[in-house]
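Input C-alpha cells:
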C-alpha cells in the first residue's frame, strides 16, 4: 500500500447481491484472509482521503499474487463559513500540476433550507495529485472573504483542510439629479485609510458599489467638470448637480490689438476670489463660477481701462463674455544691467527718480535672470534719472557706469538704457616679499593668524627659493583682525635676528607686505680657540703626574709639612697677642686638634 487507507472488496459475481467487505490497511505490506475462494475486486472507500484511480485491482485465489495499490489522487477538504446563508457563494479552483497542466473548476457552496439569518457552514472535497498547486478564490456579490484568495500545495500524506470565512459587506447606493446628467464620477474613500480611493461612474443617475468592509465609515463625493453638487436633504448619498457659469474677458488696446499681462481681479459669489493675467490673445476665462454676484476690475500700469470696474450676475450654467478697452497713459524704459565682461546681473534694483515738476514720481523694478529690466509707469513730459537704487539688494554692487542716466519721456517707450555694474569684492588677497640673503630663504615661513587665536595659523607659506609669497584669500568682512608673521628655523645660538610681523583688518580687496630679514652670525670661534689653548697644557700636566706619581709624592709631602709649620707659627703669634681666658681656650683647642691628627705614611 502506498498510503494508509480503507478498502472495500467483493466477488465479481455477487457485488450487486451482497454487501461488500471493508478492510483498513496501513502503508506498506498488509496480509489478511478471505473466507471463500474466487475472484475479488478491490477499490478505495468513498469516504477516505485517497483515490486509487480508474485501474481495476483483482485478486484470484486460484492464482495467488501480491496486489500493489497506489493512490493517485488525494482529498483537499475546503470549508466555507459565512455569517448567514447566501445563495451565490462560489469557490473557484485553479489547479496546476507538476508538468504545468492547468485545470479550472467552480463549485457552488450553499446551505440547505433557503434564506436564514443563522450562520452557514458548508464544505466540499477537491481531489488533486500530490504536488499540484491550487489557487482557491471564493466569490460572491454580497460577501467579503478572509482570505480573499489563498494558495495551497497538495502534500498527499493525509486529508488536507482549507478554511475560508465570509462576512456580508456594506453597499453604497446613491443617485444624482437630474438623471440625464451623464459621466458623473463617484469617488469613495474609507475614513480610516484616505490613501485608498475607489472611483466609479453613475449610470443614469444611480450608482451602487460593494461589498465593502463594514468596520469603517466612507466618504462619497460626486465630480464632474463644470458642475457643483448640492446635497439633497434627507438622503445620505443623494446629490443635485448644478452647472457652473463661465465669464470670458477680452482686453484690447487703442488700436484693438490684444493686451497681454493685464491683471483681472474677480471676486464675489461664495467667498470666491481670483487674480489672473490675460494671455497673449488678450483673453482670460473664469470657469466653474457658482451662481451669484461678482465684481470685476482690470489693472495694469501705464493703462487706464473702460469700464474701470463692473458687477456681473452669474446664473446657473450661464456663459458671459465681456470686452474691456485699455488706453496708454504712461510709458516704459527698457534696458539691461551687465558686468564688465557682458554677463547678466539679475536681481539688481533699478529706479527712475523724477526731476523738476515730476519730483514726486518714482518707479523701480528688479532685473530679470538675463539682466534686462523694464521701468513702467513713467509719465509723459517728465524727466527721470535712471540709476541703481541704494538698497540692501544692491550691496554686492560697488559702483555702476554710468552712475546715472537722464531720460525724458515723450509719448513712446525708451530702449537701450544699459548700465555696467562692478561687483564689490568679498574676498581679500594677500601677497608679499621678503628682503633677505638667498641662503636664508629655505629657513623662512610666513604664517597668518587670526587675532583671537594666535596659537593656530590660518594659512602658512614656505619661502623655498623665491622671495615672493602669496597666501589664500580671506573673507573681506571688515571685522576680522589678522596678524601676519615671518618665522625662521635658524638657530638662535648661531644667529641673532628679529622676526617682523604686522597686524591688519580685512577691509580691502588686496594687501601686500614687505618683510626685512637680516640675521647676524654670533662671534664664537675666538672663545673656542682661547679655551682650547688652556686645555692642552692641563691635559699634558695631568698625564705627567700620573706617570711620575712616586717621584712627585715626596715633594708633595714636604710642601704639606711646610704649609703645616707655617700655620702653627701663625697660631703661636695669635696666642701671644691674645690675653687671659681667650689664650687658655685657644691653647685647649690646639691640643684637641692635635690629638685628632694622624700621621701619613710616605712610600
Amino acid at each position: 500500500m502506498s498510503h494508509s487507507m480503507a478498502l472495500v472488496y467483493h466477488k465479481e459475481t455477487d457485488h450487486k447481491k451482497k454487501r461488500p467487505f471493508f478492510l483498513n490497511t496501513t502503508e506498506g505490506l498488509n496480509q489478511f484472509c478471505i473466507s471463500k475462494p474466487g475472484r475479488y475486486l478491490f477499490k478505495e472507500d468513498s469516504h477516505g482521503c485517497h483515490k486509487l484511480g480508474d485501474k481495476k485491482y483483482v485478486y484470484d485465489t486460484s492464482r495467488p499474487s501480491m496486489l500493489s495499490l497506489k493512490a493517485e489522487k488525494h482529498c483537499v477538504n475546503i470549508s466555507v463559513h459565512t455569517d448567514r446563508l447566501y445563495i451565490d457563494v462560489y469557490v473557484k479552483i485553479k489547479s496546476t500540476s507538476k508538468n504545468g497542466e492547468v485545470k479550472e473548476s467552480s463549485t457552488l457552496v450553499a446551505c440547505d433550507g433557503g434564506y436564514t439569518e443563522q450562520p452557514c457552514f458548508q464544505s466540499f472535497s477537491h481531489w488533486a495529485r500530490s504536488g499540484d498547486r491550487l489557487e482557491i478564490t471564493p466569490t460572491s456579490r454580497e460577501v467579503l472573504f478572509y482570505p480573499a484568495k489563498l494558495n495551497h500545495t497538495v502534500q498527499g500524506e493525509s486529508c488536507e483542510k482549507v478554511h475560508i470565512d465570509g462576512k456580508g459587506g456594506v453597499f453604497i447606493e446613491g443617485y444624482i439629479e437630474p438623471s440625464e446628467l451623464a459621466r458623473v464620477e463617484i469617488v469613495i474613500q474609507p475614513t480610516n485609510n484616505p490613501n485608498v480611493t475607489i472611483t466609479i461612474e453613475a449610470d443614469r443617475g444611480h450608482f451602487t458599489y460593494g461589498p465593502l468592509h463594514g468596520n469603517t465609515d466612507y466618504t462619497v463625493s460626486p465630480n464632474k467638470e463644470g458642475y457643483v453638487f448640492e446635497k439633497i436633504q434627507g438622503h445620505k448619498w443623494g446629490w443635485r448637480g448644478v452647472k457652473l457659469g463661465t465669464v470670458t474677458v477680452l482686453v484690447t488696446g487703442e488700436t484693438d490689438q490684444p493686451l497681454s499681462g493685464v491683471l483681472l481681479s474677480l471676486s464675489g459669489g461664495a467667498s470666491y476670489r481670483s487674480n489672473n493675467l490675460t494671455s497673449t490673445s488678450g483673453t482670460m476665462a473664469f470657469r466653474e463660477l457658482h451662481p451669484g454676484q461678482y465684481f470685476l476690475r482690470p489693472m495694469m500700469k501705464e493703462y487706464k481701462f473702460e469700464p474701470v470696474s463692473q458687477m456681473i450676475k452669474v446664473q446657473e450654467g450661464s456663459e458671459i463674455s465681456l470686452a474691456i478697452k485699455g488706453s496708454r497713459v504712461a510709458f516704459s524704459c527698457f534696458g539691461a544691467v551687465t558686468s564688465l565682461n557682458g554677463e547678466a546681473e539679475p536681481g539688481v534694483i533699478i529706479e527712475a527718480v523724477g526731476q523738476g515738476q515730476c519730483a514726486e514720481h518714482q518707479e523701480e523694478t528688479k532685473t530679470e535672470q538675463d539682466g534686462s529690466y523694464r521701468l513702467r509707469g513713467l509719465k509723459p513730459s517728465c524727466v527721470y534719472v535712471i540709476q541703481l537704487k541704494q538698497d540692501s539688494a544692491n550691496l554686492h554692487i560697488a559702483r555702476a557706469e554710468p552712475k546715472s542716466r537722464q531720460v525724458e519721456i515723450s509719448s513712446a517707450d525708451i530702449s537701450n538704457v544699459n548700465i555696467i555694474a562692478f561687483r564689490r569684492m568679498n574676498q581679500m588677497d594677500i601677497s608679499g616679499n621678503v628682503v633677505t640673503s638667498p641662503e636664508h630663504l629655505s629657513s623662512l615661513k610666513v604664517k597668518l593668524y587670526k587675532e583671537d587665536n594666535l596659537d593656530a595659523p590660518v594659512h602658512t607659506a614656505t619661502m623655498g627659493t623665491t622671495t615672493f609669497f602669496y597666501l589664500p584669500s580671506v573673507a573681506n568682512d571688515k571685522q576680522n583682525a589678522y596678524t601676519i608673521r615671518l618665522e625662521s628655523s635658524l638657530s638662535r645660538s648661531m644667529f641673532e635676528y628679529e622676526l617682523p610681523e604686522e597686524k591688519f583688518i580685512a577691509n580691502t580687496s588686496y594687501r601686500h607686505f614687505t618683510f626685512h630679514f637680516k640675521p647676524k652670525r654670533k662671534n664664537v670661534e675666538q672663545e673656542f680657540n682661547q679655551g682650547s689653548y688652556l686645555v692642552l697644557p692641563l691635559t699634558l700636566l695631568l698625564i705627567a703626574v700620573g706617570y711620575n706619581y712616586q717621584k712627585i709624592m715626596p715633594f708633595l709631602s714636604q710642601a704639606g709639612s711646610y704649609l703645616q709649620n707655617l700655620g702653627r707659627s701663625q697660631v703661636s703669634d695669635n696666642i701671644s697677642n691674645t690675653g687671659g681666658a681667650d689664650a687658655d681656650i685657644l691653647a685647649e683647642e690646639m691640643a684637641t686638634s692635635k690629638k685628632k691628627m694622624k700621621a701619613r705614611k710616605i712610600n
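The helical segments are 525-547, 549-576, 580-596. The longest helix spans residues 549-576.
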